[in-house]
Each structure stands twice: as structure tokens, then as C-alpha cells.
Amino acid sequence: MKNVLTFSLLAVATLFVSSVGAQEEAKKCEKCTANATSTVATTAPATQCSGEECAKGCCNGCPVTAAMAKLPKMTYRVGTEDLGCAESAAKLAKEKEAKLHFVVGKEVFEDKTEAYTSLVEQTESMVNEFVTPKTCSVSGTHTVAGKSCKCPVEAGKTAELVKTAIKDVKMTYAVGEKTCSCPNEAGSIAKTTGKEMTYVIGEEKTSCNMTARLTLAKAKYKAAVTAMVAAEKATAEASKTAAPAKEEAGT
């Protein structure tokens, strides 16, 4: 009886520790949401991706989340240590009385604004490269949205799919209650009314031009990737449906 009681107490203790650990992981997940730039989460691990993605259970398996993780991101360097969280990096720099550096790709900056500008430019460049159809003059391979093939017809369909996916991803402008699609018009209204111009991409709003550019690039990339994933899923399901039909016809 004593052994049974001891085992039960140990089991309860283990469950309690596991529960606390899970809660701590959830807190980490929420704390690091869009850590540095308040943009779409770009890391797949559950401790760093956005709370929304965690809630969907997409941290480790969602192909869209995995694709977003490939986009350029800003990390932070203190001495020889690299961190993904701005808050933790700032705290460490203060503790060590060391200089905080900002890293984007292979570039290292001392100035955060310069680093952020590089992040925007690198992201725009990557997204533009991703959605633009290319053909190798040597191999004749057509590539668009990460998919390569030899057939120009298939490549054309993929290119059209991507084009359709991103055509509605646009930036509009708001000044007070007035909205428009022309930045010059919005700028003129802002100057006349003295009100701030806001950049709008989908449901995202910002008064910062650089943040707007970054958000727009990521939105286009996500739309293209989502369309590709949906198309591949539809093709796979069609193949599964067609297979039994062929087998039945063969019999």
C-alpha cells in the first residue's frame, strides 16, 4: 500500500511539472511573437513562432509557416552570441555592458534603422525573385515560386497561378476617414488636412513607409506560397481519386 501511494504521489508530481513546462512553453511562444519588427512570424519552432500559428498547430508542420521561415529576418548579436529576441538581446547587452549589433543575412549593423532598411530591401528582393518566372537558357528549365519544370505550358500555368494570387495584395492609403490607392493623392490630402497618412495592407495598418513595404512583400509571398500549396494539394487529391478509377478500368 505504501509503495502504491508513493507511486501515485510521484505520478501527480510528474504531471504537475509537465503541465508547468507546457505553460512556460506557451508563454515563450506568446512572448516572442513577431519579436523584432512586429511582422509576420518567420520562425517555425514553437518557442518563437506567433501565438496564432501555435494555436493552429502549424509550428512544425505547416508548409506556409515553413516557407515564411525562409524569408530574411533580423537577429541580434551581443559579443559572439546571437539571439532571436530583441528584448533578450537588449537585456544581455546591458548585463555584459556590450554593444548590441543587428544582423540581417550576412550583414551586421550597429544602427537599427540601417539594419531594418536592409531587412526590407532583402525581403523585397527575395519575394520578387520568388514570384518572377525564369528560364535557364542552358537547361531550358522553367522556374517560378520555387517550382521547376521542363514544360513551358506547365510553367505558364504556375506563373499565372502566382500572378492571380498576388494581384489583389495591394497597398492603399488612408488619411483620416478618406482612403485612396494613390500615394501622391494621399500625400496631398495629408498635407492639406494636416492629418497623418496611414499605409494599409489587408488588415494591417502602419504609418511607417518601411514597415508598409515589408508587410506588403511578406503578404505577396504568403499569398503566392498559399496558392502553390493549395494547388499541389488539389493535384495530389485528384491523383488519389484517379488511381482507383484506373485500377477499376483495368479489371
Account of the protein in words:
The protein has 251 residues and is an alpha+beta fold. The chain is 56% helix and 16% strand. The chain contains eight helices and eleven strands. Helix 5 (112-131) packs parallel to helix 8 and helix 6 crosses helix 8. The longest helix has 42 residues, at 209-250. It is globular. The N and C termini lie far apart (65 Å). Residues 1-51 and 53-59 have low confidence and may be disordered.
Helix content: 55-70%
Strand content: 15-25%
- Main β-sheet, spatial strand arrangement: 2-1-3-4
Radius of gyration: 24 Å
Unreliable spans: 1-51, 53-59
Class derived from helix and strand content:
alpha+beta
Supply the key terms.
single chain; 251 residues; alpha+beta; 4-stranded antiparallel sheet; 11 strands; 56% helix; 16% strand
Outline of this structure?
The chain has 251 residues and is α+β, with helices and mostly antiparallel strands. It has helices at 2-31, 51-55, 63-68, 86-96, 112-131, 152-167, 183-193, 209-250; strands at 74-78, 81-83, 100-104, 107-109, 134-135, 142-144, 147-149, 172-175, 178-180, 197-201, 204-206. The strands form three sheets. It has a four-stranded antiparallel beta sheet, with helices on one face. Strands 9-8-10-11 form a four-stranded antiparallel beta sheet. A three-stranded antiparallel beta sheet has the order 5-6-7, covered by helices on one side.
Summarize the helices and strands and which ones pair or pack.
Blueprint: H1 2-31, H2 51-55, H3 63-68, E1 74-78, E2 81-83, H4 86-96, E3 100-104, E4 107-109, H5 112-131, E5 134-135, E6 142-144, E7 147-149, H6 152-167, E8 172-175, E9 178-180, H7 183-193, E10 197-201, E11 204-206, H8 209-250
Antiparallel strand pairs: 1-2, 1-3, 3-4, 5-6, 6-7, 8-9, 8-10, 10-11
Helix pairs in contact: 5-8, 6-8
